[in-house]
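Quick one: structure tokens for this chain, please?
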Amino acid sequence: LETANNFRINRTANITINIINPPSGPRSIGFTLVMEDGGSGASVTWPSNIEWANGVAPVLTASGKDILVFYTYDGGTTYYGFLSANNLN
């Protein structure tokens, strides 16, 4: 997060997401993540410090694009995660 705030991942196999280098708090930062899957249905393991809308990580599209938005204001101790758009083709 020190150098960018827009990211894209093409899921071809199961992945684990790590969020690194957030600015120190109390400065806030948001970033977007485009997750693409060409049909693999790969799973994603998210960091435990993401609080999701409705308390549950979203189900991602098995073949298409999803856009996720994240926000932190406490130096990355907690991130708030939201599914902004799903199943884009």
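The first strand starts at residue 6 and ends at 11.
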